[in-house]
Every structure is written in C-alpha cells, then in structure tokens.
Amino acid sequence: MDSKYTSMGIENGAKTNGVKRKNGVEHIKVKKIKLANEGTVAHNIKVETNGHNNNNVHENKIVNEKPQDLQEARRQLPVYMVRNRLLEEIKKHDTMILIGETGSGKTTQIPQLIHEQRLEGAGAIAVTQPRRVAAITIALRVAAEMNTEIGSIVGYSVRFEDVTSPRTKVKYMTDGMLLREAILDPLLKKYSIVVLDEAHERTVSTDVLFGIVKLAQKERNEKKLNPLKVIVMSATMDVDSFKKYFNNCPVIYLEGRTYPVTIYHSKMKQEDYQYAAVCTIFQLHATAPANHDFLVFLTGQEEIETVMYNIKQIAKEATGPPIRVCPLYAGLPPAKQLQVWRDAPPGTRKIILATNIAEASVTIPRIQCVIDTGVVKERTWSGGTGAERLSVRATSQAACWQRAGRAGRTQAGAAYRLYTAADFRARPMHQTPEILRCPLASTMLLLIAAGVEPSTFPLIDTPPPDSVKASLSLLKELGAIDSEVNPKLTVIGKKMSTFPIEPKYSKVLLCAPEYNCLDEALSLIAVLSSENVFHTPMHKREEAIKMKQKFLSPLGDHITLLNVFKAFSKAPLKKQWCKENYLNHKNLTYACEVRQQLLAICLKLNMTVTSCGQAYDQVLKCLLCGLFTNCAWQRGGAGGARAAGRYVTAAGAAAALHPASALQALRPPPPALLYSELLVTGRSYMLTVSAIQPQWLQQVAPEYARRCRANR
Ligand SMILES: Nc1ncnc2c1ncn2[C@@H]1O[C@H](COP(=O)(O)OP(=O)(O)OP(=O)(O)O)[C@@H](O)[C@H]1O
Questions:
Q1: What is the per-residue pLDDT for 27?
Q2: Among 17, 346, 381, 501, which is 20 to 30 Å from 313 by CA?
Q3: What distance in angstroms lies between residue 107's CA and the mean position of ligand 1's atoms?
C-alpha cells in the first residue's frame, strides 16, 4: 500500500449484521427471507439464500449474458424465491407498499412476475423511476431477462425518448413522463397496474403521482371501470406516513438480499471529502483484485472532473491494475451515461465517479466497493426571490443505505463511508421532500391541465403556501391560467402544457411566431434544455476560454448559445469540429434531438416556423415574453458607474453577473438584463444573461412592468 494513502483511518470490519428496523430504514446483510404482513409472523416463508458468484460480462448496450444465465440469476433473487406469496398479496390488494432490501429484485422482478401471470389483463404495467438512467438501464435488463427486444413487450419512456410500442406491457418510465400522461388521461386508463418505485426519493413528480393514482383509483371504482392496482416500493422509505396516506394499506416487508455488504466507517472526521475519496480509492486499488470495480459518490460535474483528473495523475505511479475512470452525472449526455455499463478491458479496474443519480435503483455490475463521501448537492428555492440555492449537504441515512446498496448486487461488496459512525447516526432518516423546497410552476400547470384543483389535491406533505402562491402567480403572469384562485387553463396555458419544458420556455416558443423567430427560439430553448455545451477541461482552460470568444455575442449569453448551435448545425464533421472548438459534441447532438421534438409539437399546434435572420433584438424580446419575471436592473439606475456589475432583480434581490457570462467584459455594463436562472452559491449569481433595453419590458409585459416600477 502506498504510504501516502494510509491516513484515511477506515475502521476495519465494522460490519452490519442483520436487519434492524429503525423508522422504516432497512439495514443490510441478511441471510433469511421473511415475508409477512407488517409485523405479523403468521405467513413467514423462510428461504436460505445461496450465495452465487456471477461475474458475467455486460456489453451490447448493457447486458450480454446468455439467456440461461440470466434465468439462473433471477432464480437466486429474494423476490423470485417468494414469488407465489408475493403474487397472492398483489392479487389480494388494490394498494400495497412493498419494502425490500436493495438488490432483492423489486424493480426487475415484480413487473415481470405480474406479467408472467397476466395479472395486468388488457392494460399495461407502468413502473416509475425518479431518474432516466435507471428507467433505461432497468428496462434493458428486464427485456434481456424476458429474452425480448427492447420496445416490444418491455419498453421505456423518458423525456425526449419513447421506446415503447402498442405491444408494450411492462413500461419503465420516469415519474415525470407518467405525470405528463396523466394530463391527457387523469384516470390512467392505459394501465391496470402502476408501480411507484423508489418512493423514498420523494421527487415532486412522484409525490404528485401518489395523489393522481389515489384519485384515479377512486374514480375508476366509482365509474365501475377496470380497477387500478397501485404498488409503492422502496428499500428505505418512511413507512408510517405512506401507510397513513394510502388509507392504511397493507405493508409487505421482504427481508433478504443476495450478497452481503460490509460497511466501514471512517475513524475520524474527514475535513476534505474529495481528498479522502482519492486516498481511499488508491488505498483499495493497491490490494483489490482487478475485477472489483469502485463506485464513488461525489456532488457534481465539476467535482467529478477534478477528482477524475487527480486520479488519472496519481494512477501513473500507483500500485495496482490499470484504471479506467468513468463519470456519471445528470448533465452527461444519455449515451455517455450508458458507457458506465460497458466493460473495461480485462484486467482493468473501472472507477465510476457519480452523483446521486447512481444512488438508487441502478445495478452497475462488478461494483464491489462503494466509496461514499456522504454529501449531496441540493437545490432549494425561495418563492420570494425566485432564487435557487445550491448547497452541499450531508445525505440522509436512507441515502447512505441506498448508496451502500449499489454494492452486493452481483457479488459480495463493501461500502466505505468517509464519515464516522457517530456522524451517520446523527443524520436525519430521510431528506426533505422536493415538494417542500423546489419551484412548483411546472407541476401546478400539469395538475391544472389534468383538471385538478391544486388546493384540494391530496399530497403527503403540503408545500409551503408562499411557494404555491409564487408558482400560481407566475402562471398567471405568463397568461397560462385565468385566476390564482380556482384556476383554469387559458387557451395559451393549454398549449403550454403540451411542451415537456418549463412553462416560461414554452411561453417563449408560443410567442415566437409573433416576433418572426420560431426558428431561433426552437434552437435556443433546445440548447437551454440540455446541459452545458462548452467543454472546459481543467488542464486546457485558457485555450477553451479563448475558443469561446469566437462565439461570443455582445448581446449576451443567449445569442452566444445560438451562435454555437447555428455553427454546430452547419459544421460538416461535427465531432471533430466540437473537439477543435472545445464544445461538447454529445450535448449539442442532444440539443438537436430536443429541437426536433419541440418542432414536432409546434407543427402539431399549427405554428409557422420562420427566421428573423440577424435581427437578434427580436429573439431577445421574444425571450422576454417568457422570462419577464427574470429581469434585473443596474443598482442606482442606468449610468450608475459605481454600481457596475451589481444588479437588483424584479423581486428586489441583489445579484451579480456570473463570472462566465459573455457580458462580463462589456463596458459600460448594460442597464438592464434578462437571466435564465438565479443561483445562490454564497453570492447570488445570474446565469445565462442577455442585455435588454429597459423599455422592452413595458412593451412585452406592460402590467408587470408597471408593478415593478411601483416596487422599485
Ligand atoms: N444491469 C444489471 N446487470 C447485472 N445484474 C443486474 C442488473 N440489473 C439487475 N441485476 C440483478 O438483479 C438484482 C435485482 O435488481 P433490482 O433492481 O430488481 O433490485 P431492487 O430490489 O429493485 O433494488 P433497489 O432497491 O436498489 O432498487 C440485482 O441485485 C442484480 O443482481
């Protein structure tokens, strides 16, 4: 072991043993399977699990095991072993909660078992996932297990990608996609069974879906339509509040996992978790066999890139097999995310650096070690200022267990927690549900579109009143609803709800024909809907920044992005061109796909696509139609040289231009701005900003402009 990396102080062998139930949080490493109706022991089934070692290789998208091996692996799963009992329970109850260990087979097996028995009848089975990468990879796995093409009996549906057909019976989908379907069909008539998986994640969409399925179930019963079965699943959920919410429905605990996971805690508090992670990686790398891959949890793209760079540098001199480092974060283009599931060359160790998108649901084969920094980047939103705060926080205990549960899925594993056992015990059991800390305008629009009255809609946790008020008032400002009390969609609101994007952006698209710039607006909104198109590698920062200059527009970041997109669309050898220009080829390709989809919706709405050419004022005015609540004025008014670079937003919050903005160098600084996002990271920064003429606001949104003047 390299002496540089011995200072971590991981406590040896601090194993967990057996399942302990603490407020609904499961502990790992169990040998027996017990299936019982909450607490009762009357119907226990006891099955000893046989540890089996399956180091099969996954390639070709993500699975390339032989069908018979896949079947053998299925048979070893705790869920499969008690399938008959489980199916009985599923048949008996309209709604049930299923709690089972991570990796026990809930997500992959329950829908298959239901389908094998044809319990879904003429309808289909919807299985929701909070994250797209999980929906895709699990669907691919299940299709392979069922020996069928993806998109036929088994399919998936995620934003901007629908791989299903009329034959699809088992449909994995993001919770957001099922929510979109609920607008068109609030009774979810296509489905006879809805499985809401990873319920503990408490995303806004899943929370709203709980209410949607509850209402749909009731109404389908009242109208004597085919009943809707609902199964809520997780390994680590807050059982009591869910049980209460679902009218005391039965809770089935399924105890048992295929492989054990040993938990190690840091002996002492780690001041720098990135450093601690790198130390631990190389400590383990020196001794672990090459076919043991590592999964490291970090907080975001920038951090992942820094750690990746450090690992690559240190790896040149470190003891151990060759290393392949793979990033995995939401902003990574979908195809690149799936590369994590591809095998590294034999004898090479894969080290995956992931955010919490790999925390729940996913199985990445060969992961033997999980290194958990115990932190997550969380967004909280203030309805008052419209600002989002991005902060790094300690994860909940449930998240720690979920992370540990990414090991022990295809072989025995270990989780190295870079925090002490006392720190772990002091953490809250569950994180704050998103609905209590995120903007709700999109969700409100969908609810209203689905014919639901937001104030009476049944939610597990009621969102803060000021957040509901701010969201409804934004929808009213945008002209999407007629009133904040008892709201109904307007004609434009109905059209807005058909776009799978933020209401403010759909408003921009709908206003674009008026400004003769739908062509430009589509490109711009597509780029804004995908991740960062600029690629700034740490070691070539200067060069990348220099290259960016050629796309810069003095009008600001939006037109700069448009310049990039236009140039990309014209480039003949796109990949090479992106490389030379320090642009992210995958993200730009993704933006092109998004544009196609948005264009299809516009054409369905009979909108005419025209271009304003170089008249970019038109584009900015059009942008202002959706983003007029995102204006800022220079402090002390125009010409306030002393206050250069310091602005005040329409909501009265002080904010600065982000250092990466194209407008940073502009002198004198523009008197008025339009921004896409307001982010607080210590200071309040406006992101993706354009210069506007102060009088435009008056022209585009006169009523709002009047109120702003009165408040300033
Ligand atoms: N892509 C894959 N490659 C290899 N094995 C897989 C894959 N997906 C699933 N498995 C196997 O199937 C098992 C069950 O996975 P499944 O996702 O159904 O578990 P789960 O109970 O839903 O777990 P979690 O609570 O973590 O979501 C895994 O532990 C693993 O052994």
A1: 26
A2: 346
A3: 7
Q: Which atom of ligand 1 is nearest to the CA of 257?
A: 29
Supply the residue whose CA is at minimum distance from atom 2 of ligand 1. Answer: 363
Nearest to 533 by CA among 548, 550, 554, 517: 548
Atom 25 in ligand 1: residue holding the nearest Cα: 102
Question: How many angstroms does the Cα of residue 461 sit away from the middle of ligand 1?
Answer: 30
Question: In 10 A of CB 674, how many CB atoms?
Answer: 25
Residue to mutate (ligand 1; options 75, 198, 363; most atoms within 8 A of CB): 363
Q: Above 90 in pLDDT, residue 302?
A: no
- Mutation pick for ligand 1 pocket among 72, 108, 356, 366 (CB with most ligand atoms within 8 Å): 108
Atom 27, ligand 1: which residue's CA is nearest?
361
d(CA 95, CA 115): 17
Mean pLDDT of 412-440: 94
**What is the CA(361)–ligand 1 centre distance, in A?**
7
| pLDDT class of 531 with cuts at 50, 70, 90 | confident
pLDDT (0 to 100) of residue 586: 82
Residue with tokens 């008539």: 189
* Cα–Cα distance measured from residue 406 to residue 60, given in angstroms and rounded to the nearest whole number: 22
What is the structure's pLDDT at 36? 31
Share of the chain above pLDDT 90, in %: 65
* Listed residue (650, 617, 620, 621) closest to 633, CA to CA: 650
* pLDDT above 80: residue 41: no
Q: What are phi and psi of 633, to 5 degrees?
A: -120, 150
Report the nearest-CA residue for atom 17 of ligand 1: 107
For 121-173, how does the pLDDT look when each residue is reduced to its tens digit (9 = 90+)? 999 999 999 999 999 999 999 999 999 999 999 999 998 889 999 999 999 99
| pLDDT for 139 | 96
- How many C-beta atoms lie closer than 10 Å to residue 561's C-beta? 24
Chain centre to alpha carbon of residue 629? 26
Token match 């419209």: residue?
Answer: 386
HEC letters along 213-238: HHHHHHHHHHCCCCCCEEEEEECCCC
Q: Which of 409, 410, 411 is the best mutation target for the ligand 1 pocket, counting ligand atoms within 8 Å of the beta carbon and taking the most?
A: 409
Q: 360 C-alpha to center of ligand 1: Å? A: 10
Question: How many other CB atoms sit within 10 Å of the CB of residue 395?
Answer: 25
What's the pLDDT score for residue 40? 23
Residue 43, pLDDT > 90, answer no
**Nearest atom (ligand 1) to Cα of 137:** 1
Q: How far is the CA of 1 from the centre of ligand 1 (A)?
A: 33
Cα 315 from Cα 303, distance rounded (Å)? 18
Q: Which long-range contacts (CB under 8 A, 24 or more apart) does 108-111 make?
A: 108/74, 108/77, 108/138, 108/141, 108/142, 108/145, 109/74, 109/77, 109/79, 109/80, 109/83, 110/79, 110/86, 110/195, 110/231, 110/233, 111/142, 111/170, 111/172, 111/195
**Centre of ligand 1 from the C-alpha of residue 365, in Å:** 9
Q: Which atom of ligand 1 is nearest to the CA of 138?
A: 8
Percent of all residues in the chain with a pLDDT value above 70, rounded to a whole number: 89
Ligand 1 centroid to 103 CA: how many Å? Answer: 5
Q: With H, G, I as helix, E, B as strand and everything else as coil, classify residue 423.
A: helix
Q: What mean pLDDT do residues 371-377 have?
A: 96
- ipTM for the complex? 0.98
- Measured from CB, residues less than 6 Å from any atom of ligand 1 are 58, 62-63, 77, 100, 102-109, 137, 141, 235, 258, 360-361, 363, 365, 405, 409-410
How far apart are the CA of 405 and the centre of ligand 1, in A?
10
Distance, in Å, from the CA atom of 208 to the CA atom of 563, rounded to the nearest integer, reads 38
The token pair that represents 78 in the structure block: 């705790």
